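Ticket #4471: structure export looks truncated?
Reporter: QA, pipeline team
Priority: medium

Steps to reproduce: submit the single chain below to the structure queue and open the exported record.
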Amino acid sequence: MRITGVLRSDCDERPDCHRVIDTDDPDHVLAQGDRVTDQDLLEKLHIPPHETVVKIQRRFVDGTPRVMPRDEWHAWYYAHLTQDHFRLETLPYYDPDRISFAEWQRGDYESYRQRGLSWRTKVREERDAGLLRRRVRIVRGPLTDYERFECQWGYNTLTEYGEEIRILDLTVTPFPLAPIGDFGVFNGTEVVRMHYDEGGAILGASVVERDVEFFVAVRDMLWHLAEPFPAWWAAHPEHHRKGTYPD
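Actual output as written to the record:
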């Protein structure tokens, strides 16, 4: 028997991982996990002397994805951000924006501009280097103050620095798959689902191992249905908050 790859794993290269290991045997794979030493349990299972029992994560059997914690997710994100990144935003509020949103509420655009300048410059440099960032933002009718902030200060400036952003208003263009939730597609081949708490704080992300083609198809449908942000924003002056810059 020869090892040909790793089918499922809960880590990268560490030896102390749970793994399902593929082999060149068409009928068998190998499982690596925590050895079960509970003699009462082993006796109840009637394990023959030539076999052993290991404990592995349930998700390896039922397909439940592992959620990468925030630090691991950030590292994964930048390691896979090489050619094209698509992002779907569906939540009414994202907690990482709380400082910027407070600045918008105060009308303190200069503080916002200075603090975010390095990020926007990075977006432009990546675009000049050939990296395409795309985003679809789902809204539902009249914008909340937070969504107005996102559009007026966030998307307005990011589109100038090279990110392509589109808006899909479900009250104008229904999309039955909208409850799919936030997800990202990297380079057209890798998909992650985003996980947030009820307050919009990021919990982590999980890599989609099945149905990747489905998510890529949803990405393409969303991009086709949504309206480019600059044109959409110009057509909706009712969402503009006067006296804050840029208007």
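Status: closed, not a bug. The export was complete when the record was re-opened. Leaving a note from the reviewer for reference: The chain has two domains: 3-62, 67-239.
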